[in-house]
Structure formats: C-alpha cells, structure tokens
Amino acid sequence: MLLQRMTEVLYGTPFTLTFTTTSSAAGGSKMDENQYGILFKDSTGTTYAVRFQGQYFNLEFWTMKDELKTSELTNPSFTPYLQIAGSPNFIQLTCMGALCDLSINAQFAGRFPLELNGEITEVGIFAASDWDEQFGEVTFQDLRMGMAQKNTIPALFTLEDDLTVDHATFAQSGLSGAFNAYSEDGFHFSPLIPFGYYAAKANPSLANVAVSAVVRMEIDPSGSSSRYAGLICRSSQDGMYMAVIRADGTYSVFRDTPGRPFALLVERNSDAILAGTSNNLLKLECVGNHINFFINGIQVEALTDSRFGLHFGRSGLFTKAGGEPAADAIIFKDLQIEEIRE
C-alpha cells in the first residue's frame, strides 16, 4: 500500500528540503516496520524518493505507467542517527550540482550522486507498507523547501582517526561481542568467539571511497591460521566488499551479500605482506564497478564487479578470530576514509 501527497513548487538547484518526522510501531509489534519519506519531481517528470524504514534509508527512482515501479538508486544503508520508537527526527536534504547530502538530526548521514534535470516542480511526502508488514503511525511536521544558502559543490568528505582514543567514529553499541579497546598503540579489535568475525563501520554512507588503515598482527607464511583483518566498503543492507590479509601471508577479497555470503572474489599469496608482528598498511578503493586493493603501497588487486549492485554504504574495519581469540591478536590504527568522485 502507498499513500502520498504532493504539492506544486518551482525551485532550481541548489535547494534544501527539511521536515520533522516521528514513526511509531504498530500496536503490539516489537519492530517498527513503517516505510515513509519525501518525494520530489523535476521538470522532466522524473520522481525521486528518499525512503526511511527503521534505521535504514535509501534513494529511489519512481516511474508510473500502468502501476508504480520503484528502483533503488542507492543500497539501503544503516544510520545510527535515526531515532526510532516514537522519537522525532529532523531530516534535511540539500541538493546542489550532482550531489544530494542527507543530514539526520544535524548529523551527516549520506551523500547521494544525483544529476537532477531542470527545476523541481513538485514535492511531497509518502507512507508505504509491504503485504507482510504491520504499519503503525507516522507523522510529518514543518515540511519546508527553500534555496540552499551555499551554491557550491561540497568538498570531498574525509575522515581521519588515529584510533588511539575513542573519537566516536564507531558506535560502541555496535561493538559488543568483540574485544574493542583504544590504547596508545591503536584500536585492539578482534572477535571474542573462536573463528568468529566482526566489523566496525563509520559514517556517513558514500558511493565511491578509499578506506585505509594500518593492521598489526602476527604473519607467518610458513604456518596456517584462519585469523585475518582488513577493510570494508559499501556496507549496506544488500551486502559489502571486504579486503583482508591473513595470518598465513595471503590476502583475500570478498563480496558478502545475504544470498551469497562471503563470496570469494580472489585469494593469493603476496610478497607485499610483511611477515612477523609487523605493521601492514592496507587500502581498499571502491569506485564505480572497480575494486582496488593495495598492501604497503603496492597494488595487488584490480577487480571489476557489478553482479549484485553494491554501490553505496559505509566503510570500516573487518576482523576474523583464530582458534584462540585474544585482545592483542589484531590492532588497527590510522584509519582514513576519503570520498572519491568519478
């Protein structure tokens, strides 16, 4: 079911849309399954929607012939900034150039690559529900549209964290089940469960990024171990990419999706990995359909992948424990996330 209300406007870019919304779960339901968001239409008749559900959001393209069809332009991405369970959320969408920035409760949640055609002619709100979902109540307040204050393309987003103290890069509520402690030598981050794996993800969600960090763990090419550590990009509800080095001196790149978890794209030995208990600088680039992996400044892999359409999400760190998990098994430092524009 879909309910929507639109009103005519006439705005060029840059523009800003703001509103406050509160979503409450259906009576007796433990999960807020409400779907809702904002719509805007350009002068060619193209309709775009920003959809929210729980603590996820995504950008969509809507077409109408015999019936409404929606196509995801970004993967549904988690954000800790969305408050649920009846709490109000202040939403702001600012579009300029070929980019739209989404802020939730004054926090930068995501940047959408979006080339709008001409002026915005309609704007509105919607609520929706799939056949197997319970809908509770959603309220919208103070929907406003106006010209953006700055007519400049936003600077490239960058995040730098030495990981020696907690700068709130990762939400602590999302790290339960893993050793996670900041110290002078870096972020001690490894799963508590033997052979278990864990991820720590940073905000905002972006399309094209380079993420890098220094990893310190014992590398023994002559032995065997299932422990590994590395980086992730484009983490969303649809999946993510992971590039890791292993304790046996090999590296791997995975595509992880709900239907095909931990699909191995490549696994090789590499002399670029420093043996012993050494610092190894890793860098993962996700640009368009290209996945590039660097170890200590050497590009070891260049892949092309588009099978499951992973093109938007958060970046961060990934670890897998060996048979005997330890707080000092894997240490990360000098995390850097850089937005890339094609």
CATH class assignment of the largest domain: Mainly Beta
Mean pLDDT: 92
Into how many domains do the coordinates divide? 2
Share of residues in strands: over 45%
Number of distinct helices: 0
Question: H/E series, N to C?
Answer: EEEEEEEEEEEEEEEEEEEEEEEEEE
CATH superfamily of the largest domain: Exo-inulinase, domain 1
CATH fold name of the largest domain? Jelly Rolls
Portion of residues in helices? under 10%
Write out key terms for the chains shown:
Jelly Rolls; 2 domains; 342 residues; mainly beta; 8-stranded antiparallel sheet; 7-stranded antiparallel sheet; single chain
Give a verbal description of the structure.
- This protein is 0% helix and 59% strand.
- It is an all-beta fold and 342 residues long.
- It folds into 2 domains: 2-147, Jelly Rolls, CATH 2.60.120.200; 158-339, Exo-inulinase, domain 1 (Jelly Rolls, Sandwich), CATH 2.60.120.560.
- A hairpin with a 2-residue loop joins strand 14 (178-183) and strand 15 (186-191).
- 39% of the residues are buried.
- The model has no long low-confidence stretch (mean pLDDT 92).
Topology readout:
Blueprint: E1 2-11, E2 15-24, E3 35-42, E4 47-53, E5 56-64, E6 68-72, E7 77-78, E8 88-96, E9 99-104, E10 107-113, E11 120-128, E12 137-147, E13 158-161, E14 178-183, E15 186-191, E16 197-206, E17 209-219, E18 228-236, E19 239-246, E20 250-256, E21 263-269, E22 276-287, E23 290-295, E24 298-304, E25 313-320, E26 331-339
Antiparallel strand pairs: 1-11, 2-8, 2-12, 3-4, 3-11, 4-5, 5-6, 5-7, 8-9, 9-10, 13-26, 14-15, 15-26, 16-25, 17-22, 17-26, 18-19, 18-25, 19-20, 20-21, 22-23, 23-24
